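Hi P.,

Sorry for the delay on this. The queue was packed all week, but I finally got your sequence through. Input first:
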Amino acid sequence: MEFGERLKQTRQQQNLTQSAVAEVLHVSRQTVSSWETGNSYPSIDSLIELSDFYHLSLDTLLKEDKGMTDTLRKPEVLKEIQPTIRNLSWINFMAAPACIFADHLNLAVTVLLVVAIINNKMLSRLDNFADKLGQADQYTRWRQTCWREYLIAGATTIGLIWVWVNHQTGWIEDFAIVAVVSWLVIFQAEVGHFRAPEHA
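Then the structure:
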């Protein structure tokens, strides 16, 4: 029996919901669902917690699932690419506002835009690779990095209010664009979490 099927069967035998298991293990319900459907595997620490929680030996949990054994090696690879992803994220974090506010900062818009597009493509490819190696579902990964989006949204909203109060009409449109886009990204990510169906 594969790892995910064994988890689901054990949970159902103990009359537990995915949410109840998630609460005990301090992960999202989507993470538990992802483990049970075989879309991802738990980390070593979570695996030990699962073993204790379900009263199953690690040998029983891992038996007949070669994918789980391979996955236990993946965090090493993931750890190696995280600095690259982080650095590219910071470049995007700085380049995107610079492009939008370039007319006020006298920056080379075309050069910055090309750099941002190339960087965004690289970041997207690395994120996809990290997702394949990762131990969590999409919402859990969002929760780990959403502070950047909230920071941008909050700062630009405050900036928008400030320029509006001080009648700096030349800046209002720029701040409004960044603020609206940032809040839309946050809204889409958060609403998507609540719409995700729970597997029985």
